[in-house]
Write a structure and sequence with these properties.
CATH topology of the largest domain: D-amino Acid Aminotransferase, Chain A, domain 1
Radius of gyration: 21 Å
Strand content: 25-35%
Bound molecules: adenosine monophosphate, glycine
CATH architecture of the largest domain: 2-Layer Sandwich
Distance between the termini: 43 Å
CATH class of the largest domain: Alpha Beta
Number of helices: 12
Helix content: 25-40%
Length: about 425
């Protein structure tokens, strides 16, 4: 089968690499892709939001399945456009991708179906939000309703900060219309865990756990980023917690979406916080995590195409997922200045060191070829993943491999997976 992947980051590189292992994949395309993806797929210069062009391409190349990696096209309705043209596509329709696209929708769904999450209120007007904030308990959490590249969440220590936050989101519209509606929620404490799952509308199959590091600096300091590194599995995600989440969070979410007339087919990514009162949902995403995928897929034993097809065909109940006992750690190599201002087009050296080494992966996030040379092309440049027999070994291997790569302005965190020392 010919498969088209939509996206261009480290997540899509990991998906492309994993699909390239499938004996049933005859040819892989990726739109728009990047320099690393080009090693396993033919990159096509069509943007992820150009739905009609992508669908035309899928028709002309007789693509058997399109896999959408990114949130923007999913929330924008790419799946509906493909389905209307009779094309097979992995991912939720627009009316289901709203689980990620609107935080107010997600919170109301959880409240209606008794799925554990932080207490909250939704506001459409800044004056109402401010009136509420005058009597709120601090710290408190403000969230832009719509997509904001993971940056629309503000944790405010007092009223003055919250007032400033409301101005940023609702009045200055830093995230555009994403801030027309704001969710204000209770601040929770605990460890965060990311759990990805495959869903076919009714059945859910949960993958192994992972943990992301969202802040730019060591010790969880600095600005929020798309994610600076991950490890999998999370030693804090015990069997007991897993059993609780399956009963109270995972299946109830899938059932709730179906009951609402919004059957979800694709990936549900549960962002959880393990609080003293039990696990609670921080957020839902309607797609694979980035860089969670870079530690989850290298541990997955199944043929990924088979699982995608089972989701699209509504027979996920026939699939049992299997993961290796090995652990994985991913360290993101970023451009100095990320997530604010950084240069692009800087030559990257050292990737040859990965060839022929089992258990080491250089997933490309923001790379390109310029005059035949590999150069940086984004804030997050590479996700260096390594496997190991324990999390500690995987971490040591990932940091060893991170040193094989060099480029001017290379920046990474040095404490990815350090939390496992406390497990
Ligand atoms: P989200 O995009 O909703 O996952 O939020 C981004 C980050 O903000 C999360 O990974 C948490 O670290 C933090 N966060 C979000 N909601 C809360 C909350 N209710 N209490 C504490 N921290 C939160
Ligand atoms: N790593 C967090 C995300 O993909 O949203």
């Amino acid at each position: 089968m010919k498969v088209l992947i939509v996206g261009s980051g480290g997540r899509e590189h990991a998906i492309a690499w994993k699909l390239s292992q499938s004996p049933s994949v005859e040819k892989l395309y990726c739109a728009p892709g990047n320099a690393g993806i080009a090693a396993v797929a033919e990159c096509v210069p069509i943007g992820a939001m150009e739905f009609d062009k992508l669908a035309d391409f899928a028709v002309s190349r007789e693509i058997g399945l399109t896999v959408v990696g990114m949130d923007d096209p999913l929330v924008g309705g790419i799946v509906d456009v493909f389905e209307a043209r009779g094309l097979r596509v992995f991912g939720p329709r627009k009316n289901a991708a709203v689980l990620e696209g609107s935080k107010a929708f997600a919170k109301d769904l959880m409240k209606k179906y008794g799925i554990p999450t932080a207490a909250y209120e939704v506001f459409h007007a800044p004056e109402d939000a401010l009136a509420y904030l005058k009597t709120a308990r601090y710290p408190t959490v403000l969230k832009a309703d719509g997509l904001a590249l993971g940056k629309g969440v503000l944790i405010c220590g007092d009223y003055a900060e919250a007032e400033e936050g409301i101005r940023t989101l609702m009045q200055d519209k830093k995230f555009g219309s994403a801030g027309d509606t704001v969710v204000i929620e209770e601040f929770m404490t605990g460890r965060e865990v990311s759990v990805l799952s495959f869903v076919d509308g009714k059945t859910i199959r949960v993958m192994t756990s992972a943990q992301d590091h969202k802040r730019a600096g060591d010790g969880d300091t600095g600005l929020n980023t798309g994610g600076m590194g991950t490890f999998s599995p999370s030693p804090f995600y015990t069997e007991e917690i897993d059993a609780y989440c399956r009963e109270h969070i995972y299946q109830p979410t899938v059932d709730a979406m179906r009951r609402e007339g919004r059957p979800f087919q694709g990936i549900i990514f549960f962002g959880l916080m393990l609080t003293a009162d039990g696990p609670k949902v921080l957020e839902y995403n309607a797609r694979f995590g980035d860089p969670e995928t870079q530690v989850v897929l290298p541990r997955m034993k199944n043929d990924l195409l088979e699982v995608f097809e089972a989701c699209v065909d509504g027979r996920l109940d026939e699939i049992s997922l299997q993961f290796s006992d090995q652990a994985a750690v991913c360290v993101v190599l970023a451009s100095e200045g990320y997530p604010l201002h950084y240069e692009k087009g800087i030559p990257i050296y050292g990737l040859d060191a990965f060839s022929g080494k089992d258990g080491y992966f250089a997933f490309h996030a923001g790379t390109a070829f310029k005059d035949g040379e590999l150069v940086t092309n984004g804030g997050r440049v590479l996700g260096i993943t390594a496997l190991g027999d324990s999390l500690k070994e995987a971490r040591a291997n990932a940091y060893t491999a991170a040193d094989w790569v060099s480029f001017s302005g290379k920046y990474m965190r040095h404490d990815i997976g350090k939390a496992i020392d406390e497990a």
